[in-house]
Structures are given as structure tokens and as C-alpha cells.
Amino acid sequence: MLFDRSQYRICAILVLSGTAALASLEAADEPLPPGIVATLKGHTETVYTVSFSPDGRYVLTGSFDKSLKLWEAATGKEIKTFGGQTGHQNLILAASFSPDGRLIASGSSDNTVKLWDTPFSIPLREYAHAVGVNAVALSQDGTRIAGAGKDGTIKLWMAADGKTLADLRGHTGAVTGVSFGGNGQFLASGGADGTIRLWNSVNGQSLGVIGASMSDVNAVVALPNGDALFSAGDDGVLRSWKLPVAASRTMSALGDSVLNLVLSTDGGTLLSIGADRNVRLSNFDNGQLIRQWQGPAAPVTALAISPNKATAAVGTADGRIYLWNAADGKLAKEYAAHTGRINGIAFHPQNTQVLTAGQDGTLRLWNLAAAKKPGPADEKPLKTIDAHQGGALTVAINGNGTQAVSGGADKNIKLWNLNSGQLVRPFASMSEPVSALAFSRDYTQLVAGADKRVKVWNANDGKELLDLGHPEAVSGFSLSADKTKIATGSTDRRVRVWDAKTGIELQFFSHSGPVHSVAFQNNNASLLFASKDRPPVLSTLSIVRAIRASNSPIHALALAAGGSQVLTASDDKSVKLWNANSGANERVFPGAAAPVRAVAVSPSGALVATGDADKNVRVYGLGDGKLLATFRTPGEPASLGFNPNSQILAAACSDKSVVTWDVVYRPGQPLPAEFGKPGQIFAHAGAATGVAFAADNVTIYTAGLDKSLKAWKFAAHVPIKNFGHGNYVDAVAFNPAGTQLATGGHEGIVRIWDVAKGQVLRQINAHTAPPAPAPIYCLAWSPDGKQVVSGSLDRSLKLWDASNGTLVKEFKAYKEKEFEKGHRDGVFCVAFSPDGKTLVSASSDRTIKFWNVATGTVLRDCVNAKIKSNGAAGAAAAHPGAIYGLRFTMQGQRLVSAGHAPRNRGYLAVWDTTDARLLYGEELDVGNINNVAVSPDGKYLAAACSPRGRNLQEANAYVIKMPGSDARQTTRAGQ
């Protein structure tokens, strides 16, 4: 009689549970049998099939709950679930690993075979670095990988073959972050040296350097398809930058070395003096030389140009002032102005007078109109003011020409009435001698520098607007025309640009020598700076906006909404969402009790993940900021990443692991049951520092301090191939090479598939004889891969030539007086001996038979003296119930069989294959055993089981010590 095996077995389970209710209740609280190493809990219905991976590290289970699960054999930890909407839609009846462990084939009563990727215990490819890798980035097209090194080197590799494209050198400290932008055409890197560097990602050439801040740049992220990027670091400032970076250029018109320079009031003309003693007038906007002439022999200590740009003035170390007509460069007047060095010069707004500040402590006002010819005549000043003890160091005249401000060695800044020469009031004082003073171009603000401080005041009321601390002594500064930025030059060879309102450092430029002069161009974005022994340089700002996002270091950034929003993760325990266009703080994601080290946004834009120093990963809805889940991590998460379809979240952790979770989410709907379920774990030999997914959703790249970047294959949630059938699929088996897959089921047909192509190579009508097809319940390949055997409900086994589908041998069913040694009921499992000379089969007739492959004859039956003979048929019984699993040990010396026993128990037996002698046979209180697998080392078994009873509906699989082995319960050989 033909019947549906799966339905029959479900009914049997229910009957057993019902008829033995008392026994089940009595056994409900009994402990599991000894020898169980791990209980694989997680399936919600009968576990029907089980397999060990070829390396023995994993166990695969298939269940009537429609899911496949992958487990760590040693611990019983669930690694992965294959199922859901893209998985099987009905009972899973068969599952098997490919010989290399990279694929899983599963068959189901939904009439399909599905092929799945499996996790690897080793990476697909490793990319070696000379030092620990701090971060990893993958280009948008997936062809190139960048690894950021602790030694300041970035390595660029081809993803496909691991070939090194370039070693990118330039950072003087550890590289802390890398990000591809511009459709993968450039790579941005941030470093502990405070710089951002841009590289051509094809040939590795430098595309520019951005000085970001005095502190470490901890994170950098580029717009994938745009011309902008964001950075953040230890100073807590979020910066946005425009690209490309404008190249700096040398102002050759000013000579090879500039000793001093000054900008005209309108910002269009530069007056400079070089080491060659030539005085030069230049056009600031185009850099062209207007005129030059020979300057004085004495060292020049001060420069000025009149507001109308008609007169150029130079003060010298010997106290003299020289006035030239800018039109022709001829000397108009020379004054012996002071008894000591001249430190400052300022022109009257009406171009009628010039004010000098001397080392002798005085300010002196001179009449320009009297300067009609060269010579020492008319040397008396219009006014002399005793201004500062120890020397007047700098001076400036306000816009209406009625007042002047001076700074001196006495650290004071004073306001004077130029007409009377009287002190109006002390304007301010500094902690050190005042080295420089300047009015804004509209004369509404006054800026002063003294040693390591720069201050800005309201020029009308003296109210302090900004107090800027500086890392080194300020040797020159410039206020932009729009008063939004201050540029400072210093002896540490840097020019720094600051926000004139907040005091936030915006950007810096490195120079080859100590910077003594700085000047903003009229566009408020370009700067000229000079040192005494290097050519002057014109550079352009890349900064767009700087936001004080935190008073603590920022460790990570993430983009949202196509780059119009950016998230910051900080030591202040916060994650904040910022509007990249306006700089407004739009949302704070609460919950962290420790500094937040990592943040990521799902590609779908629905989720935000954060990782903190307390080893927590939190997942929020991006739209509403609602906390959805919190996951514990084994180490402090350093990096987070979603896969492209937003279904998997990965965290790189300080304990050397990279852990993953299922995060399938649809806004506005309840969280799926699988949300937050742990997935695969990948391992480094050192702390894991970075993680990135490839566009295929299954390749994951991880970086670590073990000097490597690794590529792994992630087990996808969706099958990589589907093979349709006309009825239930009860059996699947890979050939030994893993290149072909045999499938069989209720159609009675054996199909052989090309695994790579997903195409049917041949179809064998194996058990389709009238009056109706007989289901195929088991398949096995010969060890040489040339033949495949099928076992069926028609009680027979048939051996087929896999290359052409022809019948090689039939192992006949029982037939009275013709073949009485055959099976009397359906054949449910079959296995080849390792040498391929023997077949072993088992049936619901409770027998196990050894067959000679060459002749098709029965060699022997397994006889269990503990079991009564098989009813009226009189056949020797091996089990007390139907047998559903057979496995040889690796060397073929032992055979393991598993099946059902009365009272909803399972039966497990071990046989000596030389004489079919029973070595072990016991009923186990684990539920009916539906299948069994043997670990490669032969020390462990895995059993797929039904629920243990009516009151114990939990359906599990179990990892069990091989009876008679010397394996310990808590360790696994080779783990």
C-alpha cells in the first residue's frame, strides 16, 4: 500500500503520545539521558533531519516548522536560521551539506529543493597588512578594498584576487578611518595626525590634503556619489568639507622668501618685502606683480600701504620710516622717526597722515602732505604720544581717523584721541606683550594677538567677543572680510583658521617654515601665508561647516537620507542626528550608559545601530528614534555595518570577534520573531576593528589588529538556487565532488543537477512503475561518485549510473518464494560503506540489511537479541520500531542506526560492520529519533528528534557522545 511517509509519521507520534499519556507525564520531569553534550533548542516542531558539517564544527537540522538551523556542535549555540518568506513553505524532509561544507541542499513537502550558502570556519581570502588594521572600506562597485593601518599606511587591494594596488603613504600617525566617495573614484582617509587625505582609488595618487584639527580625526565618511565628506574627532566637532581640494600654489611674484607682507584696506593689493630687500606691490587676486623697487639697507620691521594704495611705507630696525609713491616706486620721504626700532605703521583713512609705533614706547603721527621730496627735512612729528613702557609694539587707526589703538610691551591695549593725543581709555589688557592689532575692514571689530592668545572685541564699546586660546605663539593673523573667520600663523609651521564667533578650529594648513604673515583674500576662502625662508603659498579653504556636536571626543559617523543627515557617536554617551545643510540637531538617540564607539545606518534608511563601551549594541528606528532592541556583545564594539538589503547587522568587537544579528524590519509593523536573533560569528587573532558588507549581501570584510583584513562568506537568508519538483522532495545528496546534487521524492523520479548552473543533467524514472509512482525516501552516492542508489516505498533499492541514468543493479524487495531476504516495507535510509563494496539499508519493517553491491545479494541482517522477531513475518528485527537513520563512521568499522521506539522514545544502536554484531542499543528519552549523523572523528552523534511527550512539546536535536567512545562531554576533538 502506498502512503505519505511524513503524514504517517506525524500520526504515529500523536498516537504514541495519546496512548502513553501517563508514561509521558511521569517522565516529564526526568533528566535527559547521560552522554548528551549539547541540546539544540530552537525548533518549534519535530526535527526531522540532521547532518554534521564536513569539518565537524557545525550541525544542520531541518524541521517540520519549515526552517533549517545551523548550530555550533560543541556548545549547541544557534548560528543561523534559513527560512522565512524566501525559505521553504512546508515541512523540511531532507537536508545535506556539500562535501566542502560551503552549500546546503534541502528538500521539502513544498515540492522544492533549495540550495543555501553556509558559513565558513576560515575566510575566503586574507589581505595582509604590516601592522594592525584600524578600519576597512569597500568601493561602491565592490572591486577595491582599503585597509587603514596603525603605521599611517593605507593598503589598497583588488577584492577579487587580493592583489595589492597601492600603498598609500602620507599620514604621520595612525590612520583611523577610510571611506570611498565619488562613485568609488576617490578614497578619503582620516588620521591621528589631524589630517584628511584624498587619494585616487585607481592608481593611489594623492588628490589633496585637508588639515582638519589639532586633535585626532577619528572618523571620516564621504558621500558615495557626491563631492563632499564629513569628519569628526577628539575635539567633538563635526566638520563638512567640499571637494575637490583646491591645490595650493606658490606666489612666485613675491619672490623666493618673504620677510613681511601686508594687505591693503580693500584686500586687493599686497605690499611685501623679500629677503632680496626688494619691496613689491602685487595683485592679490591674480598674483601678478604690479611694481617693485629696492628697499632700505636696514632690516625692515614694519609695513603699511595707504587706503588709496598711493603710498607704501616701510619702518626699519634703526627707527627710520621710508615712504614711496606706489605709482612709480620712487622714494617720497624718509623720516628718522624713533630712537629705536619701528614696530608698527598705520595710515590715516584720508591718506593724509601716518602713525608709527616705536620701541622707545611712543606713538608718532606724521604729515604725508609735507613729504614732497626725499631728505631729512621736516622730521618733526605732528604729535608724539608716550604710550607704553617698554615699547609700543603695534598700532591701528579707526575708520574715521579720530582715534587710534595701540598695544605695547606692558601688555596693555589703549585707545587714543589722535587730535589731542590724550588717552580715551585703556581698551583692554593681555597676559603677554601685544604683538599685533588690526581692525576689521568695516572697523566694527578689533583683533589683537599676544603670545598664545587672540582676542576680538566690539570696536565701539570694547565688549569682548572672542577669546581664542592658541597652541603656540601667534606670529600673524588675518580677519576675513565677512568677519566669520580668523586665520592665525605660528612658529609651529601651521596656519589655522577659526570660526570668529565660536572659536572652533575650522581647518589648518601646514607650511615648510615658521609662519610670520597671513592674509585673507577677498573671497573669504583663500589664504596667503609666508615664512622668512620659504616661498609664500596661497591655499583655499575646503571647510563648509563646523558644528560643536559634543564636548567630548566623537568616535564614529554615519550618513542618512542620502547625505543630507549625519549621525555622530560620542564619549558623552550620545548619538545625535544633524541636518547636514543647516547644522541643526534634529534628534538624540538615548539609552547608552557608556561612551558610544560606533554608529551605522541601514541602507534602507529605517534603522540606526549604535555600539557602546559597555558592550551593548542598540538598534533604533531612524524615523522616530524609538529603541527597538539591545544586543549584548562579547567585546567592545569598534565598528558596525549593515548588509545592503538591511537584513543583517554586524559588529566588530575588541574580543577578536565579529558577531551578527538578524534585523529584518518594516517600519510601522511589529518586530518579527527573528529580529535580534544571533547569526554567524567570525574570528580574528587580534581585536576586530572594522566591518563592511559587499553588494552581494553574503560577502563580509573584517579588519583586525592581527595585521589582516579578511573576506568571509556570510550565509544568506535567501537560497542561492531553487529546484522545482512536482511533488514532495524526501531526499537530497551531493556527489563526493560537490558538483552534482541528486534529489528524489514522491514522484518516484531521481533528478541529478549541476550545482553551479542549477540545471538538470538527467532525470531517471526510478520508481515510477504502474499503477502509481512510489516515493523515494533515500539517496546515496557511491564513494567514487559514479553511481547513485535510491530507496523507495516500493521496498526496493536501485543503483544507477550517474553519467547516463541507466540501471546498474536492483536490490529487490521481499517476494515470497522468489526473494525472501528483501525488505518487507518501505526503505527509509541507505548508506554506502567507505570502500563502496557494501550497501546498508533500513526500513519501517525494523530490519537493517547489508548488501553486496556487485551481486545485489543480502550479505547479512543486523540481529538485535534484545528485540523480539518481527511479528508474523519472522524476520530478524534490529529496532523496536521503524528505522529512519543510518550512518557509517569515517573508517567504516561501525554503523549507527536510529529510529522510533514505543512510548514516544527514540532508539539508537551501534553495530560492528564486519559481522553485524550489536555493540550498543538503547531506548532514549529524547523523543522519536527521526535521523542521525556521525561527526567526522566518530566520537559524536547528532540526533533529530520529535517532542518527548504531550507535556514536553519542545522539539530538539541533540549532540551525543558516541557510545563506547573516549570523548569527553564538554570538549570536541579538533575544536
What report would you give on this structure?
The protein is built from two helices and 84 strands. The model is unreliable at 1-30 and 967-975 (pLDDT under 50). 52% of the residues are buried. The chain has a four-stranded antiparallel beta sheet, with no helix packed on it. A four-stranded antiparallel beta sheet has the order 2-3-4-5, with no helix packed on it. It has a four-stranded antiparallel beta sheet with strand order 6-7-8-65, with no helix packed on it. Among the domains are: 5-119 and 719-961, YVTN repeat-like/Quinoprotein amine dehydrogenase (Methylamine Dehydrogenase, Chain H, 7 Propeller); 554-564 and 591-707, Methylamine Dehydrogenase, Chain H (7 Propeller), CATH 2.130.10.10. With 975 residues, the chain is mostly beta strands.
Q: State Rg.
A: 42 Å
β content, as a range?
over 45%
Strand order of the largest sheet: 1-84-83-82
Structural class: mainly beta
CATH superfamily placement of the domain at 5-119 and 719-961: YVTN repeat-like/Quinoprotein amine dehydrogenase
What's the CATH topology name of the domain at 5-119 and 719-961? Answer: Methylamine Dehydrogenase, Chain H
The CATH architecture of the domain at 5-119 and 719-961 is: 7 Propeller
The first-level CATH class of the domain at 5-119 and 719-961 is given as: Mainly Beta
The number of E-state strands comes to 84
Count of helix runs: 2
Average pLDDT: 90
What is the helical fraction, as a range of percent?
under 10%
> What ranges have pLDDT less than 50 throughout 5 or more consecutive residues?
1-30, 967-975
In whole angstroms, how far apart are the ends? 47 Å
Tell me about the biggest sheet?
4 strands, antiparallel
The outline comes out as rod-shaped
